[in-house]
Amino acid sequence: xxxxxxxxxxxxxxxxxxxxxxxxxxxxxxxxxxxxxxxxxxxxxxxxxxxxxxxxxxxxxxxxxxxxxxxxxxxxxxxxxxxxxxxxxxxxxxxxxxxxxxxxxxxxxxxxxxxxxxxxxxxxxxxxxxxxxxxxxxxxxxxxxxxxxxxxxxxxxxxxxxxxxxxxxxxxxxxxxxxxxxxxxxxxxxxxxxxxxxxxxxxxxxxxxxxxxxxxxxxxxxxxxxxxxxxxxxxxxxxxxxxxxxxxxxxxxxxxxxxxxxxxxxxxxxxxxxxxxx
Length: 278
Ligand code: NI
Known about the structure:
This protein has six helices and eleven strands. The chain is an alpha+beta fold. The longest helix has 17 residues.
């Protein structure tokens, strides 16, 4: 358990990650889960097709996600790493269903993100359920962030637009990988160069985590044109096109056009420099 500002910063600098950070009480995390599952029973539906909606900037469409990416407990931790001015660039809810065997191979999130400065960004991972080795939590390799980007191989058999299968076959330090065990409402932070991956879910329960890429406003998109949302402090740089504000509803239909516009801008960037999300 990282308990003080100093130890969070020390752990992050040394290891390239920090956890388990208390972002909110377990009961509050469970209310977010309940709101998502109410949507699954209603307009959004269930299963992989429905989950696509959660994979690209859900905070532009869903009230629960807009609240989570702005949550004080989350931002207070993020601020310790990248400072008081904070933007959300990407976010995705990852639901690993019971007995889902999908393995996310070793990778570095920043490899294809195309950000001008990977040290001024951080990936937050917010647990809405318990995360464990058994249910397929993320494993992180200590110190891997300090060795630069490693060339990723591309697996053509799983090549998709949003997850092209880029991976690192046998990274140094693999045997030292640490499982990110969290209770609901806890979170981890990892550097965009930290090598990580996750096994399948061997349990009968869902694993639900919201991953959020936070950036300081001085970071630029290498694609030259992309969108982001300011969630704390001020943007004195103007490198990012602003996004719409808070959705009014859990699935705000008035936000669909803005969400689509943002997705199209990212799609154009994907075609130049793609980005695997998980
Ligand atoms: Ni990742």
